[in-house]
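Because showing beats explaining, we think one record worth quoting, sequence and backbone structure tokens together, and here it is:
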Amino acid sequence: MNILHKYILRTTLRNFLVASLMFCLLFLVFDFFDRIDNVLDEGSNFSTIALYFILKIPGLFVMTLPF
């Protein structure tokens, strides 16, 4: 593999990962604001809320891969 192919692969993968992370972040922000009323009504603590969103990240990443 020559230098040009390595450069193109590295640039493409970097852009792909940045775009996937941005889509995941966007989904998390929308989901947070969609569920904040329910979470505050239940009186959940911060660690439970953080754990919920952390555990949701792998599923969101898989969901955003086709983009």
About this structure: The mean pLDDT is 89. The radius of gyration is 17 Å. The CA atoms of residues 13 and 58 lie 18 Å apart.
